[in-house]
Structures are given as structure tokens and as C-alpha cells.
Amino acid sequence: MGSFRRTTGWALWAAPRQVVVWVLAVEVGALAATAGTAALAPVDAAGLVRFGLLGACLVAHVELSRTVERKREIAAGSGPYLSTTSVWNFAGVIVLPPALASAMVLLGYGYMWFRVWHRRGTMKPHRWWYSACTVLLANQAAVVVLALAPGVPTSATAVAVVVAAGAVRWFANYALICAVKLLSEPRARVRDVIGGFGEQILEVGAMGLGLLAACVVQTPAVLLVGVPAVLVVLGRSAQVAQFRKAAETDGKTQLFNATAWTQFATHALERTSRRGGTFGLLMIDLDHFKRINDEHGHGAGDVVLKAVAKSISEGVRSGDLVGRFGGEEFVVALPDITARELMAVGERLRRGVAALEVPTGHVSISIGAALAPDNGQSVQDLLTTADAAMYAAKHRGRNRVQAAAGLLP
After folding, report:
1. Which positions, given as ranges, span the membrane (predicted)?
2. Maximum distance among all alpha carbons in the chain?
3. Residue 88 and residue 54 in contact, taking contact as beta carbons nearer than 8 Å
4. Is residue 408, in this structure, part of any structural domain at all?
5. β-strands 401-403, 365-372 pairing
6. DSSP state at residue 147
7. Domain boundary among 229, 248, 267
8. What is the distance between the alpha carbons of residues 101 and 162, in angstroms, rounded to a whole number?
9. DSSP code per residue over 262-274
10. Same domain, yes or no, for 52 and 179?
């Protein structure tokens, strides 16, 4: 009875209806597919030995990488967190009967739950079970592909089938994770939900090691002990990349912080100048932000900052660089743009922010625009010029875009 009460108290049931329906559908589908593929091959003594070897390596891997994996999960933020235990799951798909391959997934997730997530309270039970089911479902998709070339690959065709199985497994799991995040947070930016490219490279590397482990487990099994060590190194490398990204990102808005933006903008300006192109810069200030904080509180001010940051990010071109410059100021670097195009982008951003609906009421921004080489040869020159134009916009009544002196005829 106590377990039933804990289950009915899961936060899942408070989620939007479409999320609950999706999660339950995936879980039922995972269990049905697991039961369906279990009959494809019998469990034999050799399979049990391989399961024991891979399972022992999985346990060793978890014990060696618990701290690193937890930090990677935190750094992943709203994007998907991909555990490197997929090495053992994919190896199991290749060399184990489907029933034991599914048991490998449950062993890994069960062990991670009791050794990491449950002890530290870092993952809710319904999230843990959904994640396990996405991997189970992805595994069954790979099992179907591998049925075309059973066993460890010994020919180019068989290798191609295994690679295809790995690709199908990765895509199925990744899509299921991203789908539930998009359903849970429909207003979230897609690029935040899908995560960074580095995480996907790590997943590809993990599955490559899974293929290696599958080959080794059928030869000198002692060589398997090297795989967990390699995984720990991979995990630490991914953690360094995530921390580097965190150091470049403003915590409130997820835009570049001032230091990172200035560095990237300087490089972009140098590249543009070498091509003989023009380079635009917009300095943006949120109007009456102090009044918002004073009248509605800093929490409401943070909501406004995030909404404005999102609106600006969605209103610029794909190659433009958006940063939070401090307080209520934002900056945008726009390579290869004309003066009139720059003003048009600024006006689009102004209208987008003015149309926002936030708890504090309507908000507005004042924008100053500058262009290299007309208004300066360096990012600092452009910042100074655009800042002066932005203050001119405020003096003229706010909620407007002001070009730097001499920018327009």
C-alpha cells in the first residue's frame, strides 16, 4: 500500500494531460516491445556468461564515474542528459539474447537509481522510469535491425547493419527524450531542449565502445576492464566542455555573458573585416527596468529579462550573436549587414518586445545601432557609439531605434 501511495503521489500526475498520455504510451509500448522481442532468441549458458561479464563492467563503470555523471546531469540543464552506460546497453543488444539485453538496461538503471539518483534525490521516480523505458524501446528497435545480421559483425555488410542499428537506437531514444521535454515546456527554445552537439558526439563514442565491448566479450574478456576506464575519461572530457559552456553563459537568460560575447564578436568582426564586409552592432536597454523591480519585485524582473532575451534571440538572424551585457542591457553582433538592414532588425526586435505579454504589463526597449567600418574599427568603438545612440533614443522618448551619427544618409 505504501508503494502505491508513493506512485500516486508522483509529480507526473500534475503534469499537463498530453505529457501524461505520452509518457504512459511510451512506457506501455516499451514493455510490449520488450516482451515481443524476448522470444526471438532463447537464453543460453553462453548468454548468461556474457551478461555477467558486461554487468560487472557496468557496475564498475557506475562506481568509477558516479560523481562525474552527476555533474554532467546538472550541467545538461534543460537539454537531454545522455548517460555513458549506453556502452553496456548497446553491447548487450549486439551479443545477448533480447531478453538479457533488456535485463542489462534494467540492471544499469536500477543500479544508477540506488547508487546515485535515489541517494541524492537528484531524479524523480517517474523520470527515472520513463528514461529506462525510452532506452528499452530504443533497444528493441535496434534488435529488429540486428535480426538482419545476428552476432558480432564479420563482414562489411554486417558492420553496416550494426551501425544502422546503433543509429536507430540513438535516434529513437533521443527523439523520445526531446519529445517529452517539448510537451512539458512548449515555450522552451528548441536548441535548449535538444542539447549540445558535444553530448551527441559522446553518445556516438559510447556506442562505438559498446561495439568494441561486444567484440571483446567473446574473445579475451580480460580486455573489457579497459573500457570503464576509457568511459571515465570521456565523461570528464564532456564535463569540461559543459563547464566551459556554463562559464560563457549568463545564468538568467542563457545568452552569452559580456566576456564571452565580446570575445566572439571580436573574432566575427575580424573575419568580416578581412572580407571587406560591414559589421553591425545593436545596444539594447530595457526601459524603466528599475521601476519594474521596485514595483513588482526582483523575481518579476527576472521573468521580464528572460522574456526579453528570448524575444531578441528569436528576432535576429541565425548567425548573429546575442549577449547580456549586464543588468538590463543586451547586445547583438550582426556580421555582413547593411545600415538599412541593421535598422530593420532593430525595429523588428523593438516590435517583438513591445508585443510581449508579461506579468508586469507591457515592456519596451531602446536600441542604439552602429556599423563598422563607418562608426568604428573595433568592437569597443562600436559599443561606445551604439551606447551613445541608445541613450539618444531614451532622451527622445524611449521605445525606439536610434542610428549612430552618420550611419544613415
Report:
1. 20-41, 87-107, 128-152, 158-183, 204-234
2. 84
3. yes
4. no
5. parallel
6. T
7. 248
8. 15
9. HHHHHHHHHHHHH
10. yes
